[in-house]
Amino acid sequence: MIDSANLQSLAGSIRSVASPFRAYLNDLHQRYRSMDDGAVADYIPELALAKPEWFGICAVSASGRVFDVGDCDRLFTIQSISKPLVYGLALEDHGRDYVTSKVGVEPTGEAFNAIVLDEKTNRPFNPMVNAGAIATTDLVAGEGGTARLKRVLEMLQRYTGRQLDVDVPVFLSERSTGNRNRAMAYLMRNFGMISERIDETLDLYFQQCSVLVNAKDLAMIGATLANGGVNPVTGERAVDQRYVQDIVSVMLTCGMYDYSGEWAYRVGIPAKSGVGGGIVAAVPGKIGIGTFSPLLDAKGNSARGIRVCEDLSRDFGLHVFCAAEPERTLEACIDGSATRAA
Amino acid sequence: MTRIIAVHSYRGGTGKSHLTANLAAQLAVQGRRVAVVDTDLPSPGIHNLFGLAPGDVDKTLNHFLWGLAGIDEVCCEVGTRLGVRPPGRLWLVPSSVRADDIARILKDGFDVRTLHDGLRALSARLGLDVLFIDTHPGLSKETFLSIAMADLVVLVLRPDKQDFQGTAVTVDVARELRVNDMLLAINKVHGKLDPEALRERVEQAYRLPVGAVFPLSEEVAQLASEGVFSLERPDHPITREIVRLAARVMSH
Known about the structure:
The structure holds two protein chains of two kinds. By secondary structure, chain A is α+β, with helices and mostly antiparallel strands.
């Protein structure tokens, strides 16, 4: 058999462009681009520079087909979307029992930056709120800040299949304004929940939040989680198979800040949002979705991204507990058999 | 739903644009809403057959691809002067013949997603029954796209070894693109060949149906791309073959 990798790769990307599923995403993009609800995050000046009209939707199937519409190459900071992935790294470093002794898995209903710990155990409630994320980052193994940052970046790169960098101005701004996070770290240190390398861990936390990604990266992260922890395009394993369910479960229950309960009910797709405007969603076995629109609603989630995920979930029956037959399946739409049979 | 038909040939000079223009014009005369898009960005030309001079258009497909014009701004009505009467309509989306515009496309390329989305939007906005894509000969990004999005790909070839070989390559690519449907049209068949024997041989070689066999024609050559042959010579045998092929490309 003659090697036809180049032909297959080009043909695959062109088929994605012409796929009815991309046309569907294009319709979603048209529908919500005019929606201007929400506001750009402005707690640091770098984030306030984001333009409200930026809007990208990308989806990567668990078999590695990429569908993108709009601003899918524009870089923004990953922010809280790093949290579930660093949680996976902590699980790999220490195992489930140890990690859950330091960070719970209970949704809070509190704002993401609430200074609150479980009264009985002194644990932060879950790894998606800031306190829990700092405790998680503290668990990243390695000698010194540089080595630990390198491990975090390498881990993220296994998900995206692309080299990633930290946005230094955003990192410095996050650090200089991060007194609330610093307070939480010291409170947790007081209870012995994190180690004494507080400054190093906080730097690492601010750095992991300042990693630059685009909507395509987020969709690839989602697809990797949907594909059992293996990047479907590069074939590289990003995270130990055992911990994929841990990551995806906390995303489903705690991933959308204090909108998580509503999200699990209405959308039912494990997801994580960030104040940079990104949302990553992973439909196990099927598809990863990455959206980017910096207009945030009152709870800090990308307003357009929520609508896009709601529509996708409804139209293709992607809610993890959906028992009804959807009108059309995602697979049929991707392959075009739905329209071509008609 | 708009039926998308890509007309392609591996090499230039097969009569691809002539065939596209004639099929489109025939379907429009029969009362269909038809558009032809010239995606032959490096060597556009089909506008000549529709009697469109470079001065008649100020914005082209190039301008749409660069984000300088909407898809409906680059669409010209060309049916009226050819005798197309409602409900039939015929539009052309021309490519630029300005050397600088062609150079810019070659230098900077273009986003196939923009082209795809533009063609879909055009189909919806004009309520098209049929969209013909006249592609650049050989294989390029736009030929890949036109093949991938087409409901039917018509491959035009001459009885010539280079054409036979190139068509085989195109068929391989089209199959990799999971094309829905393919049809071959053999053109410029000289008098010494038996058309029926040729049709049979080609069908066996490619395992694809041959939709039409056209003779090498002095009369088509004499028209020199200054008109749509089948409209000017409605009773000519070539016109009858074109009309038959037009019916065939519309049957699913």
